[in-house]
Specification:
heterodimer; A: two-stranded antiparallel sheet; 26 helices; B: mainly alpha; Helix Hairpins; 0% strand
Chain lengths: 640, 101
């Protein structure tokens, strides 16, 4: 267990070694280092977690050294408890296979070595985030993954769009990070420590102390919970800060799979679950979380219906699924949120890697209207995509079914409206996923002759991760509800992390009749979505269904295709005023005050110089006169 | 009879003053040069007068140094003026005023 510190260190080491070796070493060496780092990290993580599981069930803390000392002592320390164990496993496992995939996907790109430096760095930062035993270590990882996200979104820096998307992601995330910091400061001020276990022990010991009014009309718990959730909306792309995630698709596709689907964007869910004690003490905030999450889920899902870029469909799907996770957390079912986080990590990473495989085969084409009929050419991609789509649609037996069902059950207990929104979203999700599936793989090929000629199945380095993740997309759901092993195994595993301060939503068991109804409803809605997608896009209809839909509801399609004009709204309400303010600052403060001061200084200097330069006549006799005059003056001064 | 020290000093001061005025007022470079030599020698005279009065040989040694430096300076100065003359066909310092504002 004492090797826990190696888990985040190895990816950092990989990034450092590849960064030091530079781009001119042979490619196999870069690949070796890039794969050894996350691979080693995965192995160490598995060994450490299994050792810890077989030992005492208590959380394991490893203090490396004291970062700061009294009055606010902060250690660089790692914490292995059920929550961080699940997260570490998901991050290292999915991360490793995406690294493997990347070696195939990026093999023809320039910047191969730079890509893997960033990717390894990301792994290290993400593991720092989930393994940190206090808020500050987590925050370092939190900012670190944001940085890596920025670097990788803008990976194709010689094009116009990716760097802009990277900046957008970074700036939008800063808004959330600011709130996160404010929450952290409040905690440090109140408890004198940032250590998770110390803070939560103090909260559990005296929960009511935190419910006294604190700031802005909120109790202390509510204030901190709002701050942390605001941070989470930035990182995990919830309303109102979700706008960066679809644009983040400008990065390489494996990056979208790793950072913008499986790991980084789930950090917000992680932090909410980690601090569930605070959220439980602030029921109002919990309601806000649930409502925002439900709204995000349904809004993003409806936008996903009208997107034609294969990666954008998946991006909105990710936003929507993250909404599901927060819906579970908002309903008080924290273990279920982590459950969906884990299953989503598998099937969404799989779907992104599939889309990468498709884009790879289509020579960079991302528009689904120019795909179609790829089933024959990409058999492995076809079948694994089908598994991913079935998983996300909640078809029984696949991972998404179990986690989504658990979320809807929790939502039902919280409020029937939340359940209704969640169920409708499930139907829309099934629809747009199979819309993507049919548009891409069925019908006839609609691309150019050249693209058709080039079509090929991806190399084994890419198809192997697809198969592995496809298996994960099926079996990862079973850990939640293995019928013959232990019902709700994950829930029991995570139980120690969930604080018992007696305030979350009620948790009565469903009766079997209600349970059957809930499961039946979500499955029926999912199948309905698939059926509608099949009617519109299946049966070799190509784009006929899409065109019919657009002709029938032009206004609806326009609003959805334009993403509810949210980007335009933000542009008008936030971006333009700030740009105007910046211009005013430039014109008034910069031009008048700062430039003015400098110009006055320059003018005075010039004036003195202008007067003084007339002494430089160029005439030697003048100079000698100055000299003798000065000698006489000095003489008089010294003598008299 | 011995010459009183004040005579030497008056002579040296007069020579120095003549040299100063010459250096400041003359326009011919060579004449300015000669005026500076005159000032140097006025100082030499004064140093020698004191050396004799005080019975200190160090004063005479200093004068040798001054003479040596003056000789070197004269050589360099004359060389410069020849060079300037070749270039500008004049050594009138009023017209050698290129380095001005």
């Amino acid at each position: 267990m004492n090797q826990l510190w190696l888990v985040p260190l190895l990816p950092f080491l990989g990034a450092a070694v590849n960064g030091a070796l530079g781009p001119r070493v042979p490619k196999w060496l870069t690949t070796l280092v890039a794969l050894a780092a996350p691979g080693g990290s995965l192995l160490v993580a598995l060994v450490v977690i299994s050792e810890w599981r077989h030992g005492a069930p208590a959380p394991f803390e490893q203090v490396l050294y004291a970062w700061t000392r009294a009055p606010l002592r902060i250690d660089v320390a790692f914490l292995l408890d059920p929550l961080s164990a699940v997260m570490t496993f998901v991050v290292t496992f999915v991360g490793f296979w995406i690294h493997v995939y990347s070696t195939g996907y990026m093999s023809h790109e320039k910047g191969y070595q730079r890509y893997f430096v960033y990717l390894n760095l990301f792994m290290g930062m993400m593991l720092l985030l989930v393994l940190g035993n206090n808020f500050l270590v987590t925050f370092v990882g939190w900012e670190g993954v944001g940085l890596c996200s920025y670097l990788l979104i803008g990976f194709y820096y010689d094009q116009e769009v990716p760097p802009q998307a990277g900046r957008k992601a970074f700036i939008v995330n800063r808004i959330g990070d600011f709130a996160f910091l404010a929450g952290m400061f409040a905690l440090a001020q109140r408890f004198g420590t940032l250590d998770y276990r110390k803070i939560f022990a103090a909260i559990t010991a005296d929960p009511h102390a935190l419910q006294t009014p604190y700031m802005l009309g909120l109790s202390f718990a509510a204030f901190v919970a709002v701050c942390l959730f605001a941070g989470a909306t930035g990182k995990s792309a919830q309303i109102p800060l979700y706008v960066w995630l679809p644009d983040a698709m400008a990065g390489p596709t494996p990056v979208s799979a790793l950072i913008h689907a499986a790991t980084m964007v789930t950090a917000g869910v992680y932090i909410v679950v980690r601090t569930n004690a605070l959220f439980q003490l602030a029921p109002g905030v919990l309601w806000a979380v649930a409502i925002i999450a439900a709204a995000t889920a349904v809004v993003a899902a409806t936008i996903g219906v009208a997107q034609n870029d294969i990666k954008r469909v998946l991006a909105y799907s990710t936003v929507s699924q993250l909404g599901y996770m927060f819906l579970a957390a908002g309903a008080g079912a924290y273990a279920v949120a982590i459950f969906h986080l884990a299953t989503h990590a598998f099937f969404k990473a799989l779907l992104f890697l599939d889309s990468g495989s498709v884009i790879h085969a289509m020579s960079g084409e991302q528009d689904m209207r120019r795909m179609g009929g790829l089933r024959k050419h990409l058999p492995v991609t076809y079948w694994t995509t089908l598994i991913g789509c079935l998983a996300i649609s909640g078809v029984p037996g696949f991972a998404g079914f179990f986690s989504k069902d658990a979320i809807l059950g929790a939502a039902w207990q919280a409020h029937i409206a939340l359940w209704a929104v969640g169920t409708i979203t499930a139907g829309i999700t099934a629809f747009y996923m199979f819309r993507m599936f049919f548009m891409t793989f069925h019908g006839r090929f609609r691309g150019t002759e050249e693209q058709h000629h080039h079509l090929h199945e991806s190399p084994p380095s890419m198809t192997l991760p697809l198969v592995v993740l496809a298996v994960g997309a099926v079996v990862s759901g079973w850990v939640g509800t293995i019928p013959f092993l232990h019902r709700d195994w994950l829930g029991h595993f995570l139980a120690p992390v969930i604080a018992d301060v007696g305030h979350g939503h009620a948790h009565a068991e469903h009766g079997p009749g209600l349970e059957a109804f809930l499961v039946g409803a979500s499955v029926a809605v999912g199948l309905l979505g698939i059926f509608v997608a099949w009617r519109l896009y299946g049966r070799d209809r190509n784009l006929a269904g899409e065109d019919a839909f657009i002709a029938r509801f032009p206004a609806v399609h326009r609003v959805l295709a334009n993403k509810y004009y949210v980007d335009e709204l933000y542009d008008a309400v936030v971006v333009r005023p700030i740009a105007w303010l910046a211009r005013m600052c430039f014109r008034v403060i910069d031009t008048i005050f700062i430039n003015g001061t400098v110009h006055v200084g320059a003018f005075v200097t010039e004036l003195i110089g202008d007067l003084g330069r007339f002494t430089t006549t160029g005439n030697v006799r003048n100079y000698s006169l100055y000299f003798f005059t000065a000698v006489i003056v000095l003489f008089c001064w010294l003598v008299f | 009879m011995t010459v009183p020290i004040s005579w030497y000093l008056v002579l040296a001061s007069v020579l120095f003053a003549i040299g100063t005025v010459g250096a400041l007022t003359r326009r011919n470079g060579i004449t300015i040069f000669l005026s500076i030599e005159l000032m140097l020698n006025a100082v030499n005279l004064m140093i020698l007068a004191y050396a004799r009065l005080l019975g200190d040989q160090a004063g005479q040694v200093i004068v040798f140094f001054v003479l040596a430096v003056a000789a070197a300076e004269a050589a360099i100065g004359l060389a410069l003026f020849i060079a300037v003359y070749r270039l500008r066909r004049t050594i009138d310092v009023n017209r050698l005023n290129l380095l001005r504002w």
